Amino acid sequence: MLLRRNFPTIVMLHYVSDDPAHDDLRPWNISRNSFTRLLDFLQQENYRTLVFEDIDKGKRRAKSIIITFDDCPKLLWDFAIPELLKRNMKAVFYIPTAQLGGFNHWNVVEGKPRMDLMDGDDVKKLIEVGMEVGSHAHDHIVLRGMDSREVARQLTLSKSILESIIMKPVISVAYPYGSVPVNAKRITKEAGYRFGVAVKTTQQTRYAIRRWIYDDMDNTGTLRWKMSRAYTWYRDSEDKTAFLIKRLSQQAYRFYAGFKNILRANFTLIILLAEDTQYI
Ligand SMILES: [Zn+2]
User: Fold this and answer.
1) I need a labelling partner for 96 at 20 to 30 A (CA). Which of 35, 75, 164, 175 fits?
2) Distance 136 CA to ligand 1 centre (A)
3) What is the per-residue pLDDT across 223-236, written as a single tens digit (0 to 9) for each?
4) φ/ψ (deg, to 5) at 252
5) Are 195 and 8 in contact (CB under 8 A)?
6) What is the reported pTM?
């Protein structure tokens, strides 16, 4: 089942840090300034932040957004979370349970900077301050192409670990790397989730919901574009121009094909008329 049209737009964030040591984590790391810019924009545009629990209870509003954080570095407590709380905003935090209190080893093996991740106490605290906690699978691994029993294990294990910490149901999962498992609808649903979020998927279902990426390069214009319905058809954020050219050329071709058909039809009509009046 495809998503309803009025489903809130969802942004994916990771790290918010001004420490130059974290520069190499870009675009997954954004500056404090960029984060403030995003929140200012949402306030100016009158967006309300929702979490999946709200959606599940049927809460909708024309202008709403779900802010999500993947991986959950501890440093979000230094700036991002206080900024959200100051503005009465909430967000959903996705953490891979095998790395609770650990670090982002999947980035480190690629030579990227190390970040300490939240532990069980942090997760509890997130709930206490009104945030929502979701699963990011147990291990931070690509689920697509993996044996469905292992996918099910990843999803159920992380759910039960988080639930034993926060003492309430965990209703959404963010697939690591946005990699939607095969048969996500069945497996994720059977694991007890109500929602599964991905990244930049165009065919959206409840278990593969699209999120867009916010980075330091974004401004008011790109934010509006990323939050628009048109952007949900857009796959590759790095290649915006190529995408636009493709869309324009598709439109141009459609126009040309339509025009050709009109010409052909009129030409046939002229011949028929001409035959009728014995001009040819
Ligand atoms: Zn992740």
Assistant:
1) 35
2) 7
3) 998 888 778 777 65
4) -60, -40
5) no
6) 0.83
